[in-house]
Amino acid sequence: MEENKNNQITKKDLRRVFLHSLTIMCSWNYERQMHMGFMYGMAPVLDKLYKNDEKRKKEAYQRHMEFFNCTPQMTPFIMGLAASMEEQNANSEEGEFQTESISMIKTSLMGPFAGIGDSFFQGTLRIITFGIGLSFAQQGSILGPILAVGLFAIPSLLAAYYATFLGYNSGNKYLAKLYQEGLMDRVMHFASIVGLAVIGGMVASMVNITTPLQFQTGGTQLVLQEMLDTIFPKLLPLVFTLGIYTLIQKKVNTNVLLIGIIVTGLITSAIGIL
Amino acid sequence: MLIEAILLGLVGVIGVIDSRLIGRQNIGRPLILSSLAGLVLGDLTKGITLGASLELISMGFVSIGAAGPPNMQFGSIIATAFAILSGASTEEALTIAIPVAVAGEFLSIIMRMVIAQFSHIADRAIEDGKYKKAIHIHLWWSFIFNALVYFIPIFLTIYLGADLVASLVEQIPEVITNGLTVAGNLLSALGFAMLLSSMLSKKMFPYFLLGFLLVAYSGLDLIAITLYSGILAFILDRVIYAKKEA
Fold it and tell me: Choosing among B50, B59, B190, B214, which should be mutated to test the A contact, i.e. which has the most A CBs within 10 A?
């Protein structure tokens, strides 16, 4: 293995990753959610690691344009981890490092991290700090809004800052070892099982498609959605997601898909199917 | 009213800065935005107390995924402005603000559809090696677009009068508003489908289905799914690799 010590991520780089990570939601959209934010977070690291290798730089940028969604405060950990993997990749010969493992790790971590992060930051910390703020605000005290934001923002920013370093260091410590011992295939198999199960869970919990259709048969009213809920709950989100997946496999242009989906939504809603 | 309308529009932009540029430190919550709206209209105390009431009402609204609640960033700024400028009570201010907040959420849905188009431009920029352009799209195109989507409606509502805008919003046919909600929900399936297209294979399909069925039938959350599938993966790992080692 050719070691190139120029390709080393420094504390300064990781600090920039943290700062960039704060904009993770800037370009949130329906197609790939926080994906451009993740790309921007990784940009300082990628620019440095691949500054002499245009081809791999482009591949790396494209790698981080994949779908991403997580709690903003938890994301820097995943970015730090991904940074340590990119560092290993950059310091290996091309093809030696399985770059798919970077995507796998990202995908399998974002779901559980979002679960923990959302319930801690938005569910617990926000309720506590705004609860304190509210008790002052109800009397018209300026301390209300100041305390609410201050008490939330300080732990939230500190957590995100240290998460960046924690992610990078644990990546360096554990993932490097796994690689050297040739265990990466096993890790990837592990990560892809967890990753796919989590995506399945996200489809069931985050894609919200229901039908208002009702039928009259012999005096009784049949509500289709209620029937579906008893037989196969969340069937519509599953069918719809897999349907789009099939279209993507058939190389249908995503712009066509996007517009097709919007039109489908407007029409099916107008005629009362969805 | 022009100055007030501009200042309140900028309060809306502060909410955008919070969620878009500094990692959502909850400055965009009603308590803070109403206080700021009160501040620019010269009645800070009323802004704070109104903000407290609005915060209580919307405590449970957390925007996750596509199906958004009424957009309380619009709602709280408009309601506070209306209460201070016209002397209305909190309840009266809310009845004006809620339709505006609901309409505001529809604007946000359209905005998130448009930004999906930005993604494609960024894809092409990276393909051409123009990384800086892709970053500008993420940061500045999206931020400025976001800021305008908040500034313009708040500005117009205050400038034209909150009750006029509320009555206009009620004129939007339900077919359109319902249709957009459905379309927004359908679109959230697209992101997952794209993610699957890079990960799913026939061999791996059962694991996807497992996660789906566990949540669909039992309502488990994602942490539980991770733990269960982690254990499953561990067992499979033992079965597959332990044999090879032996």
Answer: B190
Angle at A255 between CA A252 and CA A259, to 5 degrees: 105
Q: A149, A168, A203: which is the final residue of a domain?
A: A203
Beta bridge partners of A214: A223
* pLDDT at residue A12, rounded to an integer: 95
Q: What is the mean pLDDT of residues B190-195?
A: 80
Tell me how long chain B is.
246
Find out whether A41 and A20 touch, Cβ atoms under 8 Å.
yes
B115 vs A: CB within 8 A: yes
Q: Which residues contact A255 (CB under 8 A, 6 or more apart)?
A: B117, B120
**Domain membership of residue A99 as a residue range:** 11-203
Where among A203, A230, A247 does a domain terminate?
Answer: A203
Q: Could you give the ipTM of this predicted complex?
A: 0.81
What are the structure tokens assigned to A236, written together? 């519509």
pLDDT confidence tier of residue B117, bands split at 50, 70 and 90: very high
The candidate with the shortest Cα–Cα distance to A75, out of A23, A124, A119, is: A23
Dist CA A39 CA B136 (whole Å): 12
Residues B62/A125, Cβ–Cβ less than 8 Å: no
Helices (H) and strands (E) counted in chain A, each on its own, are 12, 2
